[in-house]
Amino acid sequence: MKYKNMNYTKKLNKIRKKSSGMRRKEERAAWLFLLPSITGIFLFVLLPFADVIRRAMFDSMGKNFLGLDNFKLVLKNEAFRLAMGNTIRFLATCLPLLLLVSLIMAFLLYSQKKYAEFFKTSFLLPMAIPVASVVLLWKLLFHKSGLLNILFLTLGKPKIDFMNTRSAFVILIISYIWKNAGYNMILWLTGLNGIDISLYEAAGVDGAGTFSKFRYITLPQLIPTISMLCILSFVNSFKVFREAYLISGDYPHKSIYLLQHLFNNWFTNLDMQKMCAGAVICVVFCLVLILLFRKIDREV
């Protein structure tokens, strides 16, 4: 009996060693596949950003160390405050609206299967439209001589210069939601399809209503999806600058003067120390926001 146990232990140890060796081999293969990406990120992202941090603490010639003076200068800059305020206002308005609209669209598609594929394709089409075409559409609709103003004239109302009034901010939000709602809807649908149907059936047997099922089953199961959507929508929100820049140029109406306009103007004027200090402040702001999303995801 003792002899049999010794043989069994030896075989078990052999299997463990073999399993451990295979795991190490797989880990080495994974690192080899990741090496080109890690090298690229280090050379083209991390290393240049380290230089940006260094430049943010020196004068424009890079000779005299100024410490935090450039950061103080940027934080007191009126253009930076306006751009930062507009960007935060844009994010605070767009992200909840986009999540809500895309979630409603996902629920509508989830509840009916007949035309689901057709609507999925239709809602994703705005993502495939080139920025230049979107700008053309904006001009066609919102220009002084555009379709909306022709309609106003027909109704006996005065013309509105949409892109040079506070309406420009609303148009920017509508454009962002129109373009990204389809993509977010697909991600919501992925999350909804991952929820086990038996949970709803069990809740129905216990007498749970539609709201209770959403509150205690759907919402908790969608928490990882919400976190991912928040981060992706946050990153995508910075791309709306292209439309605003192409239609309004370097200095649009102050309600849509975003951080990208400011950095573009600083770059044109070769104001490197302000640009570097501003970039570091923005990266810290973005990191804090992303870490906040992650923390909420872990705690909920």
From TrEMBL:
Designated name of the protein: Sugar ABC transporter permease
Bilayer-spanning residue ranges: 90-111, 123-142, 222-241, 272-293
GO biological process: transmembrane transport
Membrane topology reported for the UniProt record: Multi-pass membrane protein
PANTHER family: BLL4140 PROTEIN
Family the entry assigns: Belongs to the binding-protein-dependent transport system permease family.
Keyword hit for Transmembrane: yes
Stored SUPFAM superfamilies: MetI-like
GO cellular component annotations of the record: plasma membrane
Keyword terms, alphabetized: Cell membrane, Membrane, Transmembrane, Transmembrane helix, Transport
Location(s) in or outside the cell: Cell membrane
Pfam families recorded: BPD_transp_1
